[in-house]
Amino acid sequence: MRGGNSGTNISSRFNMDYEAKSMYEGIAEDLGGAVGQQVDWFRWQDSYVDENYSTVIDDIYDTSNGAANSGRRWMLPFKLPTVMAQLIRSSNVMNERGFYVTDTLRLVVNVGDVQRLIPEMMSNPSSHIKDRILYLGEVYVPTRVLPRGSFGNRWAVVTIDCNQVNPEELVNDPQFQRYAEGATPDRRNLVATLENLLFGSNHTLSSAFNKAVYAYTLLASSSDSTVSITPVATDTANSLITVNGTGVESGYPVVVALPTTTTEVTIIVSPLDTSPTKTYTVIVTKG
After folding, report:
1. What is the pTM assigned to this prediction?
2. What is the torsional sign of CA 272, 277, 278, 281?
3. How far apart are CA 2 and CA 247, in angstroms?
4. What is the per-residue pLDDT across 234-245, written as a single tens digit (0 to 9) for each?
5. Would 125 be classed as within a structural domain?
């Protein structure tokens, strides 16, 4: 009896070892050939901010004061294979820009692929907070990194949670703005000013026009019954202009009547949503 029990225990012990070994070998084989989706991973260029600091408005989002495409700061992407890519709809309800509802992208990645392609992530997960991920036509940023599972004495997979970037945050971004379909320009970066204010050949302002100066005077002849005014917006495509309450297209003249000796002309320029506005005043005096 004793020998029989001993044989059963030994057999069970060896069976457990065999099962555990088979499980580990199966995990290694599965993770070695991940069958999930691939995502495009854009690495942040750390050197850009130092080299182009004067042109940067926001060091998180790709917005700059310079010419078109000058805000580019992400390297060309590499393909990151995943064990699983899961979209969690409408899971983010707040960010720094206000109240929004956006999605979460949860990636499960073989730890070997993480160590091969983005090795810094294992030792410093926050190092990739400025990276960007493109998946199914949407842009995401990694926010949380969690090693999971075990294989031998190391982690088996890494879970990377990513928050969707709002279209409003992409619309001024030369590298990713094509993914901002349907968004309106960032209200912080719209320019509600006049670039120039032109008059007919017989009329000139008392001082040179400056977009930051909002009050002017203009001398007219006593026989003048009208004056031609052409306002030119700084942001022509995204501005509304009114002259004494009448809508005017940027760069096109409008004729203003001069019924009295002194006439006040009010020119208001605003972004498309009418807020905020800038008001320019021209006092026309006949004499």
Report:
1. 0.52
2. positive
3. 103
4. 887 778 899 998
5. yes
